[in-house]
Design brief:
Elements lengths: L10 H33 L1 H38 L2 H36 L4 H15 L2 H16 L3 H25 L3 H25 L15 H10 L1 H24 L1 H38 L3 H38 L3 H14 L3 H16 L3 H27 L1 H25 L1 H4 L2
């Protein structure tokens, strides 16, 4: 049964529509983790730390695509809800073309600045060389990585979430196979890991370009367009929360690395890298659901179907609440086996990682609220509120916590800082939802 944005959504239909997006985000996280697994187990602890040190920089750059995708898809969905499909096609095309050009310009600039950036993050010696090697190879595929991020939102607006899942599976399998071939087979080390990831990112950007450039059965197609500064500003403003969230997360990751180097050395960075890999999978469930349902909210907001919006919010809060409890229980039960996948070769590092995991897992009880709330306001084209939630959650609260709590609790304070920040962000998000209810009629 084909599900349309204009449909009435019960719990079952809502989950069915969002499920491909959830899987897409989880698989995206999984194949990002494959590099870490192979590097840690086949190349060594220092290259593994290098991957974790430089990856936040790449994520900051790639988040520009997330901004165009989240902000642009919200605007396109709203315009479709208003009935102007021709303008929706033109704007979709404009956003895609701008993302591609931005990716090329950013990649060229950062390619030459990467070594001083890595050095500023505290890398030196072999750690610095490894960080630059890995980062520069990934910069070659950055424009495609940005497009891959962008299309994750537009697949849903086009009513083709299954296509997004299919592309993600292709990229994920390609990355896993190439990692095994390049690292375990050819012994190319860290460069092989980066090459495998870069090739998978190229596939993630090219496949949707080919699909949307031709006649297709979706609601969107790449066409001729013209520059629309107002729409670009609106999309960027509206998607600024997703940009802020990704940039802030990466900045905070850098700060965590600095604090961990101070309190636990290279082992601390490696342990944090394992947490971030697992965190990507678990948060992928929340982000996938939020991304998967956002175009529905935008469409009904554009169509002024406020009763449906109210039902969507109520059902979504119940669903993410269930997911939150499930993620926490799984994290507690699987802490040791998941940590063992990456660092079983070092008993001291394994013990540190398991303890960190058991503390960090409490954050999953609260993180879903702010993740969904930010996406919900982006869908309503309220970029300011969405950005404020993201700023508070991923930057202000986490920076404050990671600077203060370690002074009191030592290394445990680093792991607990995320829990404190997510709890504070959840409270603020609930307040925003309550105060904005009359304005948006949900």
């Amino acid at each position: 049964m084909h599900i349309q944005l204009s449909d009435h959504f019960n719990y079952r239909k809502l989950l069915r529509f969002a499920f491909p997006s959830i899987l897409m985000m989880v698989f995206t996280s999984l194949y990002s983790i494959v590099d870490g697994f192979f590097v840690s187990n086949f190349v060594g602890k220092t290259p593994f730390a290098a991957v974790n040190l430089i990856m936040p920089v790449i994520m900051i750059l790639a988040s520009v695509g997330f901004m165009f995708g989240a902000g642009g898809s919200a605007l396109v969905s709203k315009i479709m809800g208003e009935g102007d499909n021709d303008r929706a096609q033109r704007l979709f095309s404009l956003f895609v073309y701008c993302t591609a050009v931005s990716g090329i310009v950013i990649a060229v600039i950062v390619f030459f600045l990467l070594r001083p950036i890595a050095a500023a993050l505290g890398a030196e010696g072999a750690l610095l060389d490894n960080s630059v090697t890995y980062g520069r190879i990934l910069l070659l595929s950055l424009p495609f990585y940005m497009l891959q991020y962008e299309f994750q939102s537009f697949y849903i607006t086009a009513e083709k979430p299954q296509l997004g899942l299919g592309v993600t599976l292709i990229c994920g399998v390609a990355n896993m196979v190439l990692d095994a071939l390049f690292i375990a087979g050819f012994s190319w080390g860290l460069a092989g890991a980066a090459a495998a990831t870069a090739i998978s990112q190229v596939l993630g950007g090219i496949i949707p370009i080919i699909y949307f450039s031709r006649q297709n059965s979706s609601l969107l197609r790449l066409t001729k367009t013209k520059f629309d500064g107002g729409a670009l500003v609106k999309a960027c403003t509206n998607g600024s929360s997703e940009l802020m969230s990704n940039i802030s997360t990466s900045i905070v990751s850098m700060l965590y690395n600095i604090q961990l180097m101070k309190y636990a050395g290279e082992n601390g960075i490696a342990a944090y890298g394992v947490l971030m890999y697992v965190n990507m999978i678990f948060l992928g469930v929340f982000i996938g659901y939020s991304t998967g349902t956002a175009p529905i909210v935008s469409y009904h907001y554009g169509a002024k179907n406020y009763s449906e919006m109210k039902g969507l919010l109520k059902k979504s809060l119940a669903i993410i609440g269930f997911f939150a409890v499930a993620m926490f229980v799984l994290a507690e039960l699987l802490a040791k086996p998941l940590a063992g996948i990456f660092v079983s070769y070092d008993a001291e590092l394994l013990a540190m990682t398991v303890r960190a995991f058991r503390i960090y897992s409490f954050s999953f009880l609260f993180s879903s609220v702010a993740v969904y709330g930010s996406s919900f306001f982006t869908a309503l084209n309220d970029g300011l509120t969405s950005a404020l939630i993201s700023f508070l959650r991923t930057l202000l609260f986490q920076v404050g916590a990671v600077l203060i709590l370690p002074v009191i609790f030592g290394i445990d304070g680093v792991w607990a800082s995320v829990v404190a920040a997510e709890l504070a962000a959840a409270v603020m998000t609930v307040l925003f939802i309550v105060f904005k209810k009359k304005k948006y009629h949900y």
